[in-house]
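Our preliminary data section would be incomplete without showing what the modeling component actually yields. Below, a chain of 222 amino acids is followed by its predicted structure, encoded as tokens that our downstream tools consume directly.
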Amino acid sequence: MTTDDFTEAIKRADELYNQRGRPGAVGQSLVLLTGHEQIDSQWRLARAYFFLGQETTSIKAKRQLHALGIEAGRKAARLSDERVEGHFWSGVNLALFAEAAKGLKGAMALLRARKELARASEISADYHGAGPLRVMGRLYHKAPRLIGGSLSRSRECFDRAIELAPSNSVTLIYAAEFALDVKESSRAVALLEKIIASPVDPLWEFENLRDKARAHEMLEQL
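Predicted structure:
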């Protein structure tokens, strides 16, 4: 494959990922990306596996897809430790693998996820809508104290993420769930209302529409 062919494949893979609300689009991007060992294909593979793992309802499939995402992200990070993408996408795959695996294997994955996300935040905290901070905030919120769960650290991460990307609906949903858990219902309501009022970002359409629906559901339950 020539450089021009690879560039075109990457461009098309991004177009397909941006259509991730359409069934099959992300799976099609895997065909274009698989078999290439460059950093720009590997981190995109990790991103695609993250999305597919997130969307499947099968626990076994989740573990398999996120395991593939972890490996692709690690390859990207090995190719360039100074770039954020490999660390971030391996980190989010590790986080969701931990959720699906449970037990000791899940705990080990959780610790590794936090390490990768901390490195990603160190490189570029604002990457992917302040993604490293958003996911670390979620991990600190949901993890047991025994393996590093911390409400104060979670709050700090969410506050920093919102400062960097004020309208990111995923961060706002996570922060609203945190606010409810710490009995700050007025803050939760404000965050949920902000999600509903915000315009849809074309690059985040899938998440924005999903999170608007979730925000309506949460407000109805309050």
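Residues 3-124 form a domain with the Serine Threonine Protein Phosphatase 5, Tetratricopeptide repeat fold (CATH 1.25.40.10). The CA atoms of residues 7 and 40 lie 10 Å apart. Preliminary results of this kind motivate Aim 1 of the renewal.
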